[in-house]
Design brief:
The structure holds 2 protein chains of 2 kinds. Chain A is of the alpha/beta class. In chain A, 34% of the residues lie in helices and 14% in strands. In chain A, the strands form 2 sheets. Chain A has a 5-stranded parallel sheet, with helices on one face. Chain A has a 4-stranded parallel sheet with strand order 2-1-3-4. Chain B has 15 helices and 18 strands. Chain B is globular and about 65 Å long. Classes of the chains: A alpha/beta, B alpha/beta. The interface between A and B is medium-sized, with 28 and 29 residues.
């Protein structure tokens, strides 16, 4: 594997291999000295064009626990604010020969685009509303730990599917792992033709009882201003996962950060069914496994190779 | 007064021998000799029947096709203000290389063509730089703000072919109604970019399965079709003359068919890319595939092909929209809308629609120049004493788009990298030789 750009690029065997390695790494996280020398001397660059505390620190911890050197590059306070283009920023940072660039941008396809401009391995840490593949991997990891496996399981993804890269990556990953996925939310926030991804579409929580896993998405307050919803009150009344709606048998997930009282009631967040902190913990070991997958062993094309671009640059 | 302007160039003296002349409008389909002299077709006859005057260039064109020059009613030449993308010289050179003998430039430049001084300056510039005759549309509203009409009568007097706020729609129905009323005074077609911004919203591609997968905001086809229906109703009520630009949706085709059946004075254009590509081509988020309106579904594409065949859509227009490399080398959602198209229009349609037997060559040839009539310009015809507007093509020639660069200043062509059949060898525009393909020019010399 050269890059991790989209969950669509992974077969079931790839996901299983990465998650098995993540499981091996989870032992490291429980040690007093949480570090292995697997990527000593390698450089991982975190390039974040969007505010992110969790994902960025999770990647940073993962790289550090593998003994890699980490450089964080945030878009604010950088040349980006002076109007530098994404391409020029990537070319500039590539001059430092990073082994991997972990990139988050507000734009779909940006990670794939960047892969054509550098010899570094690219990890997509979220590209607009397109994909967030490491989130999907850590969610599958968590469910494997909790349920043993996903085959034949029913998973409901509830909320603002339209604006969620987590939803898109998870629909695909859960299905690849054998689960049956239902998306549910207000019709204004469910993309037309989302069924083409193979999931079922519901507009009410009727039938939620059949789910083994309930995955609630974060509701952005911004959607009110954009008039996708009449009010948060009505959203909560129809779609909030609360103690009345969540069955004790069901597993509750959320990508964080949670809006208590909106998509989830406080009681379910604190209930034993919620695996939200397990997800966070899984994030580090899964990202360790991803970085290991991409960086351990000889670099394709050799160190500093310039000819082995991932794909032809556009407009060549 | 309508004006087409080009730079002064020597009149060709040219005998094209033995080409298969195909001009459906003139009823020609067979080998002929065609003599171009003093700006006109001076002689037309069976092969061997026309003698070359002293000093005339002779082109042996057996096996090649001689077609009426194409007319593009919708191009962006980016002058004034965005000459780093294109200018009148490079844009008309691209047009000539595509077999076009006339093009009509849109007024969404910087500054906009919304006043007589800007239009006058453009005519002057075209008179020095344009390889093929260029006509200009002026804005419908000042600043393209959709509120106050431009000085349409003065702009028409100066030579504007008509009016368009292309790039943005005339959202306000009342404003368009006033423009249609004012058209009774000044004439000139109203060419309309149809989009309801409250429906297209932040969309950057066609709303459908591909946009759902990519998580990219979609533009529903009703953003166009509802506006087409509205504007046809307005044109009908006011007895106005409208031209619908870059039709992309099945619903728009249906609205057009209904309006035409009701006697509305409406014409319409469709682009080669909407006739040959779909939203599947956007899957990789290649920014060359980003244009407005967006590439639609296969079902929509078929509706457009059928509409061009049955005449519901009158003509082909490229909507040639050059952008600089660094402007397009950004994430899809950030990239500007538009693809170049002048140099590939014929080959794309020939390769994707004529060769597979979907459309007749004669129909494609007719539709590639029919845009002239939509904007009130004379239709090119291959006939004695008609102005010489011709293009010579080699239907056998296969080429890779962009392989040897572009005549356009920009390279954002949605067909870039594709193998296409059909190459323009020579273009005669208003009696002057506007283009010779390099290898053909060498072999003919």
């Amino acid at each position: 594997m050269r890059h991790l750009l989209s969950i669509q690029d992974l077969e079931r065997e790839d996901i299983e291999r990465i998650l098995d390695r993540a499981l091996a790494f989870s032992e490291v996280s429980d040690r007093a000295i949480k570090k292995v020398p697997a990527l000593r001397g390698r450089t991982v660059l975190n390039l974040f064009y969007e505010a992110s505390t969790r994902t960025r620190s999770s990647f940073e911890l993962a790289a550090k626990r593998l003994s890699a050197d980490v450089v964080n590059f945030a878009a604010s306070g950088s040349s980006v604010e002076k109007g530098e283009s994404l391409k020029d920023t990537v070319l500039t940072l590539s001059a430092h020969s990073p082994d991997a660039i972990v990139i988050r941008t507000p734009y779909a396809g940006a990670a794939a685009l960047v892969a054509g401009w550098t010899t570094a391995a690219i990890v997509n840490a979220g590209d607009g509303q397109h994909e967030h593949p490491t989130q999907a991997l850590l969610d599958v990891f968590t469910l494997r730990q909790k349920l043993g496996g996903l085959d034949g399981r029913s998973i409901w993804i509830v909320g603002d599917v339209a604006h969620s890269r987590v939803a898109r990556s998870n629909i695909l990953a859960f299905q690849t792992m054998g689960a049956h996925v239902t998306v549910c939310g207000p019709p204004t926030l469910i993309p037309r033709d989302i069924g083409a991804l193979g999931c079922e579409v519901r507009y009410t929580l009727d039938g939620l009882r059949d789910a083994d896993v309930v995955y609630a998405l974060r509701m952005q307050h911004e959607r009110m201003r954009q008039a996708y919803l009449p009010s948060l009150r009505e959203y909560a009344a129809r779609y909030q996962i609360n103690g009345r709606r969540l069955h004790p048998r069901q597993v509750l997930m959320h990508p964080g950060p949670v809006n208590r009282g909106v998509e989830l009631s406080g009681e379910v967040v604190d209930s034993p069914q919620a695996v939200i902190t397990m997800q966070v913990k899984a994030g580090v070991v899964v990202r360790m496994a991803v970085l290991f997958e991409l960086l351990a062993g000889p670099r394709p094309g050799g160190v500093g190779a310039t000819a082995s671009l991932a794909r032809e640059p556009q407009l060549a | 007064m309508t004006r087409l302007v080009q730079a002064a160039a020597p009149r060709a003296e040219l005998l094209v021998r033995g080409a298969r002349v195909l001009d459906p409008r003139a009823g020609l389909d067979g080998p002929h000799d065609v003599l171009v002299r003093a700006g006109h077709v001076a002689a037309l006859g069976p092969p061997g029947s026309v003698a070359a005057p002293d000093g005339a260039e002779i082109v042996d064109a057996a096996g090649r096709h001689l077609l009426p020059g194409f007319v593009d009613p919708h191009v962006h030449l980016r002058t004034p203000g965005q000459e780093h993308k294109e200018d009148l010289e490079t844009g008309t050179r691209a047009a000539a290389a595509g077999g076009f003998c006339a093009v009509v430039a849109m007024p969404n430049t910087d500054p906009l063509v919304d006043s007589a001084p800007v239009l006058g300056a453009l005519f002057d510039l075209a008179g020095r730089e344009a390889r093929v005759p260029v006509g200009f549309l002026a804005c419908v509203t000042r600043g393209q703000e959709g509120a106050q009409l431009t000085e349409m009568a003065e702009l028409r007097e100066l030579g504007a072919l008509g009016f368009s706020d292309d790039g943005v729609p005339v959202t306000d129905a009342g404003t368009l109604r006033r423009a249609l009323q004012y058209q009774r005074l000044c004439g000139g077609v109203l060419a309309l970019h149809e989009e309801d911004p409250s429906l297209s919203g932040p969309g950057v591609m066609h709303e459908g399965a591909v946009s759902a997968l990519l998580g990219v905001a979609g533009i529903p086809t009703v953003a166009e079709s509802t506006m087409v229906a509205r504007d046809c109703a307005l044109a009908r009520y006011e007895g106005g003359r409208i031209h619908i630009q870059h039709v992309s949706a099945r619903g728009s085709v249906e609205a057009l068919a209904a309006a035409k059946a009701a006697g509305v004075h409406v014409s319409a254009e469709v682009s080669p890319h909407h006739l040959t590509l779909t939203d599947e081509d956007v899957r990789t988020l290649d920014t060359r595939m980003k244009m407005f309106p967006p590439l639609v579904s296969e079902d929509g594409r078929r509706a457009l092909v059928d509409a061009l065949r049955d005449g519901t859509i009158d003509c082909v227009a490229t909507d040639h929209a050059p952008h600089a490399r660094d402007e397009k080398e950004v994430p899809f959602e950030q990239a500007p809308m538009g693809t170049t198209g002048l140099e590939t229009a014929f080959a794309a349609l020939y390769t994707e629609l004529v060769l597979p037997g979907v459309l007749e060559l004669a129909l494609v040839v007719e539709r590639l120049s029919a845009g002239a009539a939509c904007l009130g310009l004379p239709l090119p015809r291959i006939a004695r004493d008609e102005p010489a507007n011709l293009c010579l093509v080699d239907l056998e020639a296969e080429w890779t788009v962009g392989e040897s660069g572009y005549e356009s200043r920009s390279e954002n062509c949605c067909f870039g990298g594709r193998r296409l059949r059909g190459r323009v060898l020579l273009t005669v525009a208003a009696g002057t030789i506007a283009y010779r393909e390099r290898s053909f020019a060498l072999s003919a010399a």
